[in-house]
Amino acid sequence: MRRFLWLIIAAPIGLLLVTIALANRHGVQLVLDPFRPANPVISLVLPFYVYLIVALLAGVVIGGAATWRTQARLRRNARRSAAEAQRWHAEVDRLGRERERNQDTSRQLLPANR
């Protein structure tokens, strides 16, 4: 079911991207020299769809990094809670073994009923 839904969403998006790529094959000059835009020292000529795809990928990466950064506190708290739970489980195990030892020694000290 999950794959089917993924195909329903991904197929139209892929078709849209291919359509944009085919419609925007002409070269576009990206000028990276703000002081001489008419005669730039640094410029880049690529098809327009490349700029669109790069912008989309940059948005995905920046959004993912921002989300990962904002969830850092939650991950840190989860690690601390897991470590604390593990310590408490170890303490329960230790106390259970100590209780069993105390019960065994108290049984040995009690007189046998005959």
Q: Overall 3D geometry? A: elongated
What's the rounded overall pLDDT mean? 87
- What ranges have pLDDT less than 50 throughout 5 or more consecutive residues? none
Question: Number of helical segments?
Answer: 3
Secondary-structure class: mainly alpha
How many extended strands? 2
**SSE string:** HEEHH
What's the arrangement of strands in the largest beta sheet? 1-2
Strand content: 5-15%
What is the rounded Rg? 33 Å
Through-space gap between termini: 71 Å
Biggest sheet overview: 2 strands, antiparallel
> Helix proportion of residues, in percent?
over 70%
Multimeric organization: single chain
Top keywords for this entry?
114 residues; mainly alpha; 3 helices; 73% helix
How would you describe what is shown here?
This protein is mainly alpha-helical. Helices cover 73% and strands 9% of the residues. The chain has three helices and two strands, in the order αββαα. A two-stranded antiparallel sheet has the order 1-2. Helix 1 packs antiparallel against helix 2. The longest helix has 38 residues. It is elongated. The termini are far apart. 0% of the residues are buried. The model has no long low-confidence stretch (mean pLDDT 87).
List the helices and strands and how they pair.
Layout: H1 2-23, E1 27-31, E2 43-47, H2 48-70, H3 72-109
Antiparallel strand pairs: 1-2
Helix pairs in contact: 1-2
Task: Write a brief caption for the model.
The chain is mainly alpha-helical and 114 residues long.
